[in-house]
Design goal:
Blueprint: H1 6-9, H2 18-32, H3 45-60, H4 71-91, H5 105-137, H6 143-185, E1 196-203, E2 210-218, E3 224-234, H7 236-252, H8 259-272, E4 281-289, E5 294-300, E6 306-308, E7 312-313, E8 334-337, E9 343-347, H9 350-353, E10 355-356, E11 359-360, H10 362-370, H11 378-392, E12 401-408
Antiparallel strand pairs: 1-12, 2-3, 3-4, 4-5, 5-8, 6-7, 6-9, 9-12, 10-11
Helix pairs in contact: 2-7, 2-8, 4-5, 5-6, 6-7, 7-8
């Protein structure tokens, strides 16, 4: 592509890339977790520093608590179990207590599970001392060999249980992180919009977190902006990429409300992002003006929104490509007027991919499900459409189900 390109259009008069300038604002949005709120166009350095400091302080001051048993109670349980093994050793005839020493593995396992490797090492040392004392009271044949065998078992138990504990903690932290990410990507509550009623529905995939997201906010010109996106792929990486691109959108809307420009800015940010190549995202951006009656939209490889109540597609103007597919993405916006009884429904491809007996719902059947609901208020439409889809399917969800309904508010 020759001549003046999109990269030139995305630079300020001083030659600084708008994407680079806005990346700082997007980073603040990710740290603060306030992507639903429109950020100030130029935050001061003091504001940036305060945001980072607050986030770090919260991370340090929120230690993870393992279970509900106190540390004192855990120590007491470990000591009591070790002493119980010691008493049983002494109470048993010397000819029959050969294997009892191995039961010291029980308090060592408890110590490793509750306190990790350090607590387990202390427990190993304590149990070895008790075993030696017991052997002095009731001599053990081939004591040296017996002690080495038991020490190997004790250390093995400590290592295995401590490793399992650490892995469980990592998995729990990952699950908590993904839950937080999902809550940020698809919040159950959106900010109050002056002239547009908004209804949302989201059901996570049964196969783990995916990359669907939406953002409803105010534009710098007083308009209402609604963005829905879907990262290509599944799992934690897709969720983190969705967090990244949603945060960029949240920063960009502080400076422009043009749907095509917003998608182009997001495409540039995605291409500039360090990491794996060919990270792809589909997205649709809608702008409501004049009390929600004037609608503009642009589409980047996403299923077209449906105009309510007729359920007609608002297709892309010109060609459309996924975000991240290549440089120089130029998307044009469509424009239309909405009557007070009209609106828009945006969905991700998880809505058409729900299945019954192995067959996907598809677009035509989706329209049939939505047709009786298309005149409902935004919130009712979203919730009842979700219920209708879940009633229709008899299989687990392979992809996230995400719906966003918007209507001009009736006076």
């Amino acid at each position: 592509m020759s001549g003046r390109g999109l990269g030139d259009d995305l630079r300020d008069e001083d030659g600084v890339s708008r994407v680079k300038r806005l990346d700082r604002e997007a980073a603040i949005s990710e740290i603060a977790g306030e992507a639903n709120l429109r950020l100030p166009a130029q935050p001061s350095p003091e504001q940036v520093g305060d945001s980072v400091t607050t986030s770090a302080a919260e991370a340090v001051s929120s230690p993870r608590v393992q279970g509900t048993v106190s540390n004192a109670a855990r120590i007491a349980w470990v000591c009591a179990t070790a002493l119980a093994v010691f008493v049983i050793w002494l109470a048993t005839d010397a000819s029959a207590n050969t294997g009892i020493g191995f039961f010291y593995a029980a308090p060592i396992g408890l110590a490793a599970w509750w306190g990790g490797a350090r607590f387990a090492a202390i427990a190993v040392a304590g149990c070895v001392v008790l075993y030696n004392v017991g052997a002095l009271i009731q001599p053990v044949p081939h004591f040296g060999l017996a002690l080495v065998v038991r020490l190997v078992v004790f250390i093995g138990v400590a290592i295995v249980v401590s490793t399992l504990r650490e892995r469980l903690i990592v998995l729990e932290h990952s699950a908590e992180e993904l839950e937080d990410i999902q809550a940020a990507l698809t919040p159950t509550k959106v900010i109050d919009i002056p002239h547009v009623d908004v209804g949302t529905a989201f059901v996570a995939s049964d196969h783990g977190v995916s990359g669907d997201f939406y953002l409803v906010t105010n534009g710098p010109d007083g308009s209402t902006l609604a963005i829905v996106g879907d990262v290509v792929g599944h799992g934690p990486d897709a969720a983190r990429l969705a967090t990244f691109i949603r945060a960029r959108f949240a920063a960009f809307v502080a400076n422009t409300s043009e749907p095509g420009e917003l998608l182009s800015l997001a495409n540039t940010a995605l291409l500039d992002r360090p990491g794996p190549a060919h990270e792809l995202v589909s997205a649709v951006c809608l702008r409501f003006r004049d009390e929600g009656t004037e609608l503009s939209w642009a589409i980047a490889g996403h299923p077209p929104p449906l105009r309510l109540p007729r359920l007609e597609e608002l297709g892309p103007v010109g060609t459309t490509f996924l975000l991240g597919a290549g440089e120089g993405l130029e998307l044009h916006a469509g424009h239309t007027s909405l009557n007070p009884d009209e609106g828009v429904l945006i969905y991700t491809d998880g809505a058409t991919d729900i299945r019954r007996s192995g067959e996907p719902l598809g677009f035509e059947k989706l329209l049939r499900l939505l047709n009786p609901l298309s005149s409902l208020a935004a919130k009712d439409l979203a919730s009842r459409a979700e219920a209708a889809m879940l009633d229709w399917t008899d299989e687990s969800l392979r992809d996230d189900l995400c719906l966003l309904a918007l209507r001009p508010k009736r006076c």
